[in-house]
């Protein structure tokens, strides 16, 4: 495109100025020599006045005014087209007001859509093509938070430390070899049990009795098919990954996976239900093992294609399928469907299959032991209201449908209307309220496994999933750029509850370290920062104890996770910087309010993460979210959000969820707090567990 006349004129003036420096207006008026220093010449600097550009009449042609007027008309036409609410007929005296309003809008919340709505092509691995991460992935929410904090909290950009050069081992030296089955059947059963107690209760695409019988056959010397061997070794690989972290010992999960991969060609020769199960096993291994090097997204779409080809998404009533066959087909479909909703949300990409294309018949709530091949399933296999090992999985399947609706309504590309099913949603605020109510009803009916059972951790895990979806609804999105204060309180509460529940699982040794949990925890931390720093947030109402308890608990979990996700260290410096700025923010507020120290001791904080208290009896009564939130003087910071073209290193933070990881530890006790009047000692005591 040819440059505009004004641009050409500017270039000519710049070229002229490079040869002859034009004196500033003050020096021209006083007829003194100007040194031409930019942005302030020496004379103006000594006089402590603004240095205004001087003009040289030789640089201005006769057509210059006509060019300027034509360009102004062109710019005004653009403003009228894109910003019709701006009155261009106002006099020049109103110019400063318009500029101030425009600056406030630019520094405030409206341009948030530029961040939440932009395309995200980021590099997650060196040398690889850019990958797309959409608005629901958390990348832009993270960028949204960090961009504003960078200006408002004066967080400096720090270049990453140079690599020591000896932290990475070449892949060729690892030489992973296929590993044989454990020498003892009991050892294999121990690893297999870990799989069925963790993965299977959420993704029940295998039939437990059939698999255990298959394992027994192998140890009895019976020949089995390549598909059988693949499933046996993959279950052992996943089980070894889980047991390694529980027992703090190194088990050869990669060796079992290598033994399974040997049989991979036989699986893809033709589409089959067992082939879908094998691909799901690979996905489960990839989620739980960050060093697998397998593309989870590509693997998922292969399984999704097989589901469509086999017709698993339809309720086929045909005598060719027995009741048990039909049930396993339904389970496999729902596992792929749920994984599709998880990945499309976590990565911000399009869903793979829409609800209108599926029959969506839920599996029966029946234990695997009661699902026997070649036997008809009774109409009511379990007593009404009884909890089975399928109960939590079925409840997660129901939640996946809500996930799909939220994804399509709030994070759709087409802004004309949310293109989700019929009837067309015209009142999105009413839809938002209705969806929150439906989620509350879902939460109230979470199956409660008895304490001490192998499935009791699911009680907390399902509640975490509930809070994750609520945060997905109420945090800034392409449809809702500016959440109200009441919704920010809800978001803050859910982030605290998520971290509390994760910490509860962690201290009870029931937390399964996987890719999804790591990303969820990271976004909870970013959500807390957002809710504290947002202009309509809870920063002036909450107390420092509440925030520090949550961040310290997240720090403990991330430190433990860093043993397996080694690149988590990338996020540590950023989180540390924001934490320091957040503590300084609270410190300034306390000093202005005349408080000498933090008001609530650790044991009295309502949001104590070690307890099971919830904020308020009615979760959707916004008054119920004020517990632990007190009165404080309004902070006189600049508006929170400032658009920027630089990504604030968020591609590195999000690559933390897509590849090999590094050690992480938020080094709380070594932070340079720089706080007034004894507050530093109090905070040190808090984060180290004192009272």
Automatic annotation (TrEMBL):
<dbReference type="Pfam" id="PF04082">
    <property type="entry name" value="Fungal_trans"/>
</dbReference>
<keyword id="KW-0539">Nucleus</keyword>
<dbReference type="GO" id="GO:0005634">
    <property type="term" value="C:nucleus"/>
</dbReference>
<dbReference type="InterPro" id="IPR052202">
    <property type="entry name" value="Yeast_MetPath_Reg"/>
</dbReference>
<keyword id="KW-0805">Transcription regulation</keyword>
<dbReference type="GO" id="GO:0043565">
    <property type="term" value="F:sequence-specific DNA binding"/>
</dbReference>
<dbReference type="Pfam" id="PF00172">
    <property type="entry name" value="Zn_clus"/>
</dbReference>
<dbReference type="GO" id="GO:0008270">
    <property type="term" value="F:zinc ion binding"/>
</dbReference>
<dbReference type="GO" id="GO:0045944">
    <property type="term" value="P:positive regulation of transcription by RNA polymerase II"/>
</dbReference>
<dbReference type="GO" id="GO:0000981">
    <property type="term" value="F:DNA-binding transcription factor activity, RNA polymerase II-specific"/>
</dbReference>
<keyword id="KW-0238">DNA-binding</keyword>
<dbReference type="InterPro" id="IPR036864">
    <property type="entry name" value="Zn2-C6_fun-type_DNA-bd_sf"/>
</dbReference>
<feature type="domain" description="Zn(2)-C6 fungal-type">
    <location>
        <begin position="23"/>
        <end position="53"/>
    </location>
</feature>
<protein>
    <recommendedName>
        <fullName>Zn(2)-C6 fungal-type domain-containing protein</fullName>
    </recommendedName>
</protein>
<keyword id="KW-0479">Metal-binding</keyword>
<dbReference type="InterPro" id="IPR007219">
    <property type="entry name" value="XnlR_reg_dom"/>
</dbReference>
<keyword id="KW-0862">Zinc</keyword>
<keyword id="KW-0804">Transcription</keyword>
<dbReference type="InterPro" id="IPR001138">
    <property type="entry name" value="Zn2Cys6_DnaBD"/>
</dbReference>
<dbReference type="GO" id="GO:0006351">
    <property type="term" value="P:DNA-templated transcription"/>
</dbReference>
């Amino acid at each position: 495109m040819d440059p505009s006349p004004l641009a050409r004129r500017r270039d000519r003036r710049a070229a002229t100025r490079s040869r002859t420096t034009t004196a500033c207006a003050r020096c021209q008026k006083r007829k003194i020599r100007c040194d031409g220093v930019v942005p302030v010449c020496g004379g103006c600097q000594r006089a402590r006045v603004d240095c205004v550009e001087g003009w040289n009449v030789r640089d201005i042609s006769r057509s210059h005014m006509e060019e300027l007027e034509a360009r102004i008309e062109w710019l005004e036409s653009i403003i009228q087209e894109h910003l019709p609410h701006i009155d261009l007929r106002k006099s020049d005296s109103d110019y400063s007001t318009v500029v101030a309003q425009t600056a406030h809008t630019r520094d405030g919340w409206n341009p948030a859509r530029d961040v939440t709505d932009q395309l995200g092509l980021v590099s997650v691995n060196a040398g690889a093509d850019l990958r797309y991460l959409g608005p629901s992935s958390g990348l832009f929410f993270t960028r949204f938070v960090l961009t504003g904090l960078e200006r408002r909290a004066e967080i400096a950009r720090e270049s990453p430390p140079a690599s020591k050069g000896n932290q990475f081992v070449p892949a060729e030296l690892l030489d992973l070899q296929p590993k044989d089955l454990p020498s003892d059947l009991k050892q294999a059963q121990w690893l297999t049990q870990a799989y069925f107690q963790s993965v299977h209760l959420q993704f029940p695409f295998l039939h437990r009795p059939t698999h255990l019988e298959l394992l027994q056959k192998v140890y009895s010397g019976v020949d089995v098919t390549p598909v059988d061997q693949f499933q046996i070794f993959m279950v052992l690989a996943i089980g070894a990954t889980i047991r390694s972290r529980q027992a703090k010992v190194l088990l050869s999960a990669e060796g079992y996976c290598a033994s399974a991969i040997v049989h991979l060609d036989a699986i893809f020769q033709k589409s089959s239900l067992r082939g879908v199960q094998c691909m799901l096993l690979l996905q489960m291994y990839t989620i739980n093992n960050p060093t697998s090097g397998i593309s989870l997204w590509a693997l998922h779409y292969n399984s999704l294609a097989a589901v469509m080809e086999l017709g698993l998404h339809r309720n086929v009533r045909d005598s060719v399928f027995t009741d048990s066959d039909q049930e396993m087909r339904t389970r496999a479909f729902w596992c792929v469907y749920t994984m599709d909703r998880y990945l499309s949300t976590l990565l911000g990409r399009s869903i793979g299959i829409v609800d209108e294309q599926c029959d969506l018949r839920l599996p029966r709530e029946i234990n695997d032991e009661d699902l026997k091949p070649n036997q008809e399933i009774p109409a009511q296999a379990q007593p009404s209201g009884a909890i089975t090992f399928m109960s939590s999985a079925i409840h997660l399947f129901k939640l996946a449908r809500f996930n799909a609706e939220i994804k399509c309504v709030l994070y759709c590309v087409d802004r004309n209307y949310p293109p989700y099913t019929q009837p067309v949603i015209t009142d999105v605020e009413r839809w938002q309220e209705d969806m929150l109510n439906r989620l509350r009803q879902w939460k109230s009916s979470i199956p409660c496994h008895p304490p001490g059972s192998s499935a009791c951790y699911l009680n907390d895990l399902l509640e975490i999933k509930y809070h994750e979806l609520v945060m997905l609804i109420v945090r800034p999105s392409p449809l809702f750029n500016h959440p109200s204060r009441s919704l920010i309180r809800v978001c803050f509460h859910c982030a605290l509850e998520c971290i509390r529940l994760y910490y509860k699982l962690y201290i009870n040794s029931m937390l399964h370290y996987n890719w999804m949990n790591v990303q969820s925890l990271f976004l909870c931390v970013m959500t807390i920062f957002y809710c504290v720093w947002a202009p309509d947030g809870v920063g002036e109402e909450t107390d420092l104890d509440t925030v520090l308890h949550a961040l310290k608990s997240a720090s403990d979990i991330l430190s433990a996770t860093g043993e397996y996700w080694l690149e988590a260290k990338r996020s540590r410096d950023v989180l540390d910087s924001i934490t320091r700025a957040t503590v300084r923010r609270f410190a300034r507020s306390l000093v202005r309010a005349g408080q000498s120290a933090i008001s609530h001791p650790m044991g009295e904080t309502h949001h104590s993460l070690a307890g099971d208290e919830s904020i308020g009896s009615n979760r959707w009564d916004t008054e119920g979210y004020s517990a632990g939130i007190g009165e404080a003087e309004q902070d006189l910071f600049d508006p929170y959000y400032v658009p920027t073209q630089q990504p604030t290193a968020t591609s590195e933070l999000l690559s933390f969820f897509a590849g090999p990881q590094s050690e992480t530890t938020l080094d709380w006790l070594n932070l340079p707090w720089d706080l007034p009047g004894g507050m530093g000692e109090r905070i040190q005591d808090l984060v180290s567990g004192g009272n």
